Write a sequence for this structure.
């Protein structure tokens, strides 16, 4: 799966290089934190893929948003994913999952609140 890089705008050069699946919460049925990298300009960042449930309508909406983050935060996420023994298992009980799964008062994932986000962009997928 490849995407358009937000920095060099090269089609198909932005790729997901690491990912960690997080457990369902009160807002999302599928939630994944990803490290993204451009093969052309070497841009790096984070992305979040989330499927939002709407039980009354029996539909699923999804969002895939990329984030420019501070280098230290990107390194921290890479470290957490590398240290997880089973990153695609949302029910993994490792320290990395425990650190990343922080919920707000309504039971929804808090997202990237602990990281220095420098901007966001749509993850535009290339078929």
């Amino acid at each position: 799966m490849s995407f358009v890089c937000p920095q060099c705008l090269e089609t198909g050069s932005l790729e997901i290089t690491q990912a960690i699946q997080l457990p369902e919460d009160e807002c999302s049925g599928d939630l994944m934190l990803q490290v993204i990298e451009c093969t052309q300009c070497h841009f790096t960042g984070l992305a979040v893929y989330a499927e939002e449930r709407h039980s009354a309508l029996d539909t699923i909406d999804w969002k895939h948003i990329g984030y420019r983050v501070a280098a230290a935060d990107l390194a921290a996420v890479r470290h957490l994913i590398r240290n997880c023994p089973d990153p695609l298992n949302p029910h993994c009980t490792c320290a990395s999952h425990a650190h990343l799964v922080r919920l707000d008062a309504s039971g929804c994932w808090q997202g990237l609140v602990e990281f220095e986000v420098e901007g966001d962009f749509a993850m535009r997928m290339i078929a």
